[in-house]
Amino acid sequence: MIVTKGLRKSFRSRRSAPVDAVRGLDLTVEPGEIFGLLGPNGAGKTTTMRMLATLVRPDDGEVTLAGADLRTEPHEVRRRIGYVAQGGGTTDGASAREELVLQARFYGIGKAEAGRRAEQALAAFELTEFADRPCAGYSGGQRRRVDLALGVIHRPRLLILDEPTVGLDPQSRAQVWAEVRRLREEGMTVLLTTHYLDEADALCDRIAIVDHGELVAEGAPEQLKREISGDVVTLELAAADAEAAEKVLTGLDCVHRIEPREGDELRLYVTDGASAIPQLLHALAEAGLRPEQTRLQRPSLDDVFLARTGRTIS
Amino acid sequence: MKLARDTWLIFQRQLLLMWRTPIWLIVGVVQPLFYLLLFAPLLRPVLAPGGSYAQAYRIYVPGLLTALVIMGGLFTGFSLLGELRAGIIERTRVTPVSRTALLLGRAMREVVALLVQAVIITLVALPFGLTVPFGLLLLAYLLLGLLALMASSVSFGLALMVRSDAALAPVLNTIAQPIALLSGVLLPLSLAPGWLRAVADWNPFYWAVEGIRALFAGHLGDASVWRSLVLVSALTVVAVLWSARLFTDRVR
After folding, report:
1. Which of A46, A133, B12, B136 could join B215 in a cystine, given CB atoms 3.0 to 4.6 angstroms apart?
2. Mutate which of A50, A106, A159 to disrupt the B interface (most B C-beta within 10 Å)?
3. How far off is chain A from B195, nearest CA to CA, in Å?
4. Cβ contact A91–B95 (<8 Å)
5. B146 CB burial (10 A radius; 0-12, 13-18, 19+)
6. How many domains does chain A have?
């Protein structure tokens, strides 16, 4: 549905050195998936989205969206994709219905059909109740649902959402997630950006983590967490034993990495926590050591980011 | 065809939004009315020495209307900045809608708004003895409409270039100020020294004012009428093309 090869964009300004916002991004989004672009603020997510949405011309790279070439047929791309910007774009003085009808007509849809589609969209996004009031009076969550409805009024095969839940309360956020899942069930492919780890984790089938305009990791959230850092096992030892324990455990196969020790606590990255803990305990027992406490943690996407970049996302 | 359809769509929406906030009409009409009621009598001895109020208004009202459409048109760029900020322009940019229509639909709204104001001011001037042949008045409105289209196109183009309220205001003032002074709009250029009148001869808006004055005076055959029509039409085409190019380039 989306293929980008070597996508690149830098911004020049008179006062400072050029900023390389996106540096050679290769992405593949399969039909029917919810694909998340995860990264800290300033990672190049929005620039990437704006390039895909035909708003910014890429400096370099090949992009195909829903079968249309971004460089040579931007017009065709516009027909095939829906895009919802970070800040949305509703007119304060117009109602949701008026906005939806106008948006449909921008895509060349006739007056009667545009009215029908607006009616359907209002029902689908639970907007019927205030459909004829001006958008200025809508809550953040309601506005967001209008934005989403506007983005899919022409029934695109691909929907691009830039930070769809930023600034929303938890309830509205959950509602947006539900809408995105519903659209996917209707056969739409969804590409979204987020800097919320839980959002990427809960909503996306696959994610790509970007930092400084480059791809850091790509895969299903579960797979990424397992592959990159495995599980995290924390052992608490008597102060005198900590150093000896570290030496014993360093040689084990199942241990990828031991984090620099803080006091008498050891943080180990292991392949599979459930099977590693018995091995760890066994090795320690053989050396005459016994941890006071053992904790097993599933790694978060933040751990993935940390492992790849040495920094945390948030 | 698509351009006409898209322009119509944008124009309709803009008109609807304007209709819902009619404050523009009050603001747009009140200020010119002050000029008409409080300032024009002051100028009567200069405009029409020894003449009637009707004669004075025949000279003054065309200048006032020209100033109204040029100033009103020039400052309409701020509305575009508001729409840019709200993300409305970006939302429409991602659709296949014609880029030129984004400009023309908005500029046409401004033309309608300014012509409505012009008509109201003309009506108010009637009781003071202003008389204009109806056909010639329509021709004058055509000229004013073209001026409004030109000024608002330029304003939208500038708004796209500078992109900020803080920068747009001084830029527009700098452009508007000399145009207004040299058009003989506020004070007649008959008061001006020769060199200033020579400079004004190079100001196309002065020509436009002269053309409209001739129409208000009932001189259809006056050379200034066809000269101003040709000149203003040409300038309007240039302004629209320039601004439309900015819309397609920067609003790709």
Report:
1. B136
2. A106
3. 41
4. no
5. buried
6. 2
pLDDT band at A244 (very low <50, low <70, confident <90, very high): confident
Domain range for A255: 231-298
A269-295 pLDDT per residue, tens: 888 888 888 988 898 888 888 888 888
Distance CA(A191)–CA(A208), nearest Å, equals 11
The pLDDT of residue A264 is above 60: yes
- Can you give the pLDDT at residue A230? 73
Residue A293 lies in a domain: yes
Cβ B252–A105 below 8 Å, yes or no? Answer: no
CB contact under 8 A, A94 and B13: yes
3-state SS, A238-268, equals: CCCCHHHHHHHHHCCCCEEEECCCECCEEEE
In one-letter notation, the amino acid at residue A157 is: R
Query: In Å, how far are A20, A137, B110 from A17, measured between CA atoms?
Result: 9, 43, 41
| pTM for the predicted model, two decimal places | 0.85
Task: Please tell me if residue A110 touches chain B, with a CB cutoff of 8 Å.
Answer: no
Chain B partners within 8 Å of A93 (Cβ): 17, 20-21
Q: Is B199 exposed, middle or buried (0-12, 13-18, 19+ CB in 10 A)?
A: middle
Locate the chain B residue with the closest alpha carbon to A76.
Answer: B96
Length of chain B: 252
- pLDDT of B134 reads 92
Q: Do residue A200 and residue A263 come from a single domain?
A: no
- As a whole number of angstroms, the distance between CA B148 and CA B208 comes to 12
Whether complex ipTM tops 0.95: no
CB contacts, 8 Å: A105 with chain B: 9
Nearest residue, CB atoms, B87 vs list A53, A89, A93 = A89
Q: Is residue A214, in this structure, part of any structural domain at all? A: yes
Chain mean pLDDT for chain B: 89
Cross-chain CB nearest to A94 (options B17, B92, B96): B17
Domain annotation covers residue A118? no
Where among A202, A225, A248 does a domain terminate? Answer: A225
A40 contacts A211 by C-beta, under 8 angstroms: yes
Kindly report the CATH number assigned to the domain that includes residue A163: 3.40.50.300
- List chain A residues with CB under 8 Å of B17: 91, 93-94
Whole-number Å distance between alpha carbons of A267 and A296: 10
CA distance A280 to chain B (A): 56
State the Cα–Cα distance between residues A176 and B245, nearest whole angstrom.
Answer: 38
Whole-angstrom distance, CA of residue A164 vs CA of residue A112: 30
Q: Which of B2, B20, B95 sits opposite A103 (nearest CB)?
A: B95
Q: A249: domain CATH number?
A: 3.30.70.100
| Cβ-Cβ contacts under 8 Å, B106 against chain A | none
